[in-house]
Amino acid sequence: MRTFHLAMAVIALLLAGTVAAQNLPRYYKDADFQRTGRIDSVQIEAQRVVIDDISYSISSNLIVHSPRAYSVPVSNLKVGTLVGYKMLNPRSRLIGEIWLLPNDYNDRPRRR
């Protein structure tokens, strides 16, 4: 009986994370970001961001999406934040859009 309750508690926690991630706005659900990762460094003046130990350039027209607003200032990019991102040119590692993701976002890292 104790094992059953423990199993049910684990399932409830897993479902709670999935439901929380599904409460994102429509523009997140329609997002076609190519990768996910955690921000290691942000250098707005130099138009650079490091995500999961990889350095990227950020477009001067970068759009940053937040769960609270379609577009927020680039200053919302903070070290440690989980993000999804889309590159304008994968060969030059130029990011055009970033989605700020909740810490409970549960999606396999995307690589395209």
Structural summary, described in words:
The structure is a single chain. By secondary structure, the protein is α+β, with helices and mostly antiparallel strands. The protein has one domain (2-101): OB fold (Dihydrolipoamide Acetyltransferase, E2P) (Beta Barrel), CATH 2.40.50. It has helices at residues 2-22, 26-29, and strands at residues 35-43, 48-51, 54-66, 69-72, 82-89, 94-101. A 5-stranded mixed β-barrel has the order 1-2-3-6-5. The chain is globular. The protein starts with a helix and ends in an 11-residue tail after the last strand.
Name its key features.
112 residues; OB fold (Dihydrolipoamide Acetyltransferase, E2P)
List the helices and strands and how they pair.
Elements: H1 2-22, H2 26-29, E1 35-43, E2 48-51, E3 54-66, E4 69-72, E5 82-89, E6 94-101
Parallel strand pairs: 3-6
Antiparallel strand pairs: 1-2, 1-5, 2-3, 3-4, 5-6
Low-confidence stretches: 12-21
CATH superfamily: Copper binding periplasmic protein CusF
CATH architecture: Beta Barrel
Strand/helix succession: HHEEEEEE
CATH topology: OB fold (Dihydrolipoamide Acetyltransferase, E2P)
Q: What top-tier CATH class fits best? A: Mainly Beta
Residue-averaged pLDDT, rounded?
81
Global structural class? alpha+beta
